[in-house]
Amino acid sequence: TKYLREDGDGTSSWQTAGGISAACGRGSRDTAAASGTQAITGTGFTPVAVWFVMGSNDTAKGSVGFDINGTAQNVNNRHNYNTDTWGMTDTFSMRAVHSAGNQYDGKITTLGADGFTITWNKYGSPTGTISFGWLAIG
Description:
The radius of gyration is 19 Å and the shape is elongated. The model is unreliable at 72-76 (pLDDT under 50). By secondary structure, the chain is mainly beta. The protein is 0% helix and 63% strand. The chain has strands spanning 2-6, 12-16, 22-30, 36-41, 49-56, 61-68, 75-80, 85-89, 94-99, 102-112, 115-123, 129-137.
């Protein structure tokens, strides 16, 4: 809980170490559902960053993404298991593509004292269930 810091003038002082909070969990979303929001609670703190790993049961694609400070600085890497290719964007944290024009995207739009809110956008008529894991850091 304490560490000895060099003060830069030849002296040292004991400082209280700051803690880092972390929480993890998993969730799911039916891609037949309309666009909307999904609250994730139970972190016990306000996250500053959240990482996601996502897969869908009806597609051979998955994504790894993160959100920082609940802003539009989301970065997503998508992997197509069939062709072993990766794609990248900065507009969402999770994406499930059922077929051309039929996809489901999610990104954090709100950070709160006990978790975060994912806003989901549905395009076309995707089917299946998104399963995702998350790691929040505060």
